[in-house]
Write a structure and sequence with these properties.
- This protein is α/β, with parallel strands linked by helices.
- It has two domains: about 200 residues, NAD(P)-binding Rossmann-like Domain (Rossmann fold, 3-Layer(aba) Sandwich), CATH 3.40.50.720; about 100 residues, Alpha-Beta Complex (UDP-galactose 4-epimerase, domain 1), CATH 3.90.25.10.
- The protein contains eleven helices and 13 strands.
- The strands form four sheets. It has a seven-stranded parallel β-sheet, sandwiched between helices.
- α1 links the parallel β1 and β2.
- α2 packs parallel to α4, α4 runs parallel beside α5 and α8 packs across α10.
- The radius of gyration is 19 Å and the shape is globular.
- The N and C termini lie far apart (about 40 Å).
- It binds nicotinamide-adenine-dinucleotide (NAD).
- The site of nicotinamide-adenine-dinucleotide (NAD) has 28 residues, from α1, α4 and β5.
């Protein structure tokens, strides 16, 4: 897929040093953008992984510092903003609810308050989360939702509402992508990280793979390249009034099966064990309805869970020395 309108574009990626941000920045460079400003406080991402390219400028700062943010953004005229900076994720928000509000709400509103005066802006893409569906089984964008399981789910949803408010009242051209469990290169293991990088690292080291729950729970694991494709389709589309689009693949995988695939591809001797689910984790099955994204944006995820895990494990093994030297960085 070529994204012609990104050619020579000036782009801001908040949270660009993080897992998804890093993958997005690499794809934007391939799309021949002229400039990328990465704004990140490196609390859960690392600029050290960003590619070496003169078009990238790294700005290390907290997104909720309105005055400094205003100063930084007003030095540029951005065509596209991808807002990925976030306090990640559910358990972290349970442990640190105030930081979650600061980054996920105050940070998002600060950014939108400043951008409402930037008439050059073609699109503001907000990285929302499937957790906004809460316990709703129907994971369709039109479903009535009432997320209240964790501060993260409440705040990611609230930020979505703000993107709609700024679109409707100030004509900031926004849309949101509800991201389902995404995995791939550049995501390191860590206390608050997703299950896949944690299992890969443990499997490589022959440590126990401890599943929270019965293992029969399912998730819509999405390879990061497919998600990035959706974000760019959204950015280059005519949708600009706060519309919501589901990420995901429309397929579900049992957690136990995912663990077994990781074990097989790492040729690991790790034992798979089980412990009780976390008290906020009430969703047994999570699968995206991707029909709206397919119809309105032409989204067609291509990567199966086997293929995506193989690619991720390959990256992890090839970069293991670097990954190991950074271990415990975020703990
Ligand atoms: N990875 C997933 O499965 C997933 C699922 C649903 C939603 N999302 C959303 O996608 C986005 C990217 O997620 P990710 O997996 O790349 O996470 P990540 O933690 O790797 O990236 C987030 C980045 O934001 C930065 N950041 C955090 N607080 C900040 C602050 N106050 N100021 C500036 N920078 C700050 C971090 O340092 C990090 O680099 C997030 O908005 C997240 O909520 C991700």
């Amino acid at each position: 897929m070529s994204f012609e309108s990104l050619k020579n574009a000036r782009v801001l990626v908040t949270g660009g040093a993080g897992f998804i941000g890093n993958n997005l920045v690499r794809k934007l460079l391939q799309c021949e953008v002229s400039q990328i400003v990465v704004l990140d406080n490196q609390s859960s991402g690392m600029a050290v992984f960003l590619p070496n390219d003169v078009r990238i400028t790294f700005v290390g700062m907290d997104i909720d510092r309105y005055d400094k943010l205003n100063f930084v953004i007003n030095q540029h005229e951005f065509d596209y903003v991808f807002h990925l900076a976030a306090h990640f994720a559910n358990q972290n928000s349970v442990d640190h609810p105030f930081s979650d509000i600061q980054t996920n709400i105050v940070g998002t509103v600060s950014l939108l308050e400043i951008l409402k005066f930037h008439k050059s802006l073609k699109k503001f893409v907000y990285a929302s989360s499937s957790c906004v569906y809460g316990t709703t089984e129907n994971m369709n964008e039109e479903a009535y939702i009432y997320p209240s399981e964790t501060p993260y789910s409440i705040n990611k949803y609230t930020a979505e509402l703000y993107t709609q408010y700024y679109a409707h009242l100030f004509h900031v051209p926004t849309l949101s992508i509800r991201i389902f469990n995404t995995y791939g290169p550049y995501e390191l293991a860590g206390k608050y990280r997703n299950v896949i990088p944690n299992f890969i690292e443990k499997a490589i080291n022959g440590e126990e793979l401890s599943i929270t729950g019965t293992g029969k729970e399912t998730r819509d694991f999405t390879y990061v390249e497919d998600l990035i494709e959706l974000m760019l389709l959204g950015a280059c589309s005519d949708h600009h009034e706060g519309e919501i689009f589901n990420g995901g693949t429309g397929a579900k995988t049992e957690i136990l099966k995912m663990a077994e695939i990781i074990k097989a591809h790492t040729e690991s001797v790790s034992q798979i064990t089980f412990k009780p689910a976390r008290n906020w984790d009430k969703v047994k099955d999570r699968m995206s309805d991707t029909s709206k994204s397919a119809k309105a944006l032409g989204y067609a995820p291509k990567t199966s869970i086997e293929e995506g895990l193989q690619k991720t494990i390959k990256w992890y093994k090839e970069n293991y020395d670097k990954v190991k030297s950074l271990k415990n960085y975020f703990e």
